[in-house]
Amino acid sequence: MIHICYGLYDKSGSYSKFVGTSICSIFENTNADCTIHILHDNTLSLDNRDKFIYLAGKYNQQIKFYNVEQLCTEQLEIFKKKFAKVQNTKYSIATLYRMLIPQIFSTEIDKVIYLDADIIVNLDIFELWRVELGKKFLAAAPECELDVFHEQRIFSHYLITCGKVKQENYFNAGVMLLNLKKFRKDKNILDGGIDFVLNNPKCLFFDQDIFNYCFANDYIKLPENFDVFVKSEIVREKNSKTRDAIYHYAENILNFDINNALNNLWFSYFEKTAWFNKNIFLNLHDGAKQFSNEIKNFALQMTKILPGKKRAFFMTQANLQVFKQIFAIAADEEIIFAESENSIQQLQQSFQNSQGKKFFFILVANYPAVHQSLSAAGLNFGKDFVNGLEILPTMQGGIFDSHRLLKNL
Question: How many Cα atoms sit within 13 Å of 121 on the Cβ side?
Answer without folding.
Answer: 28
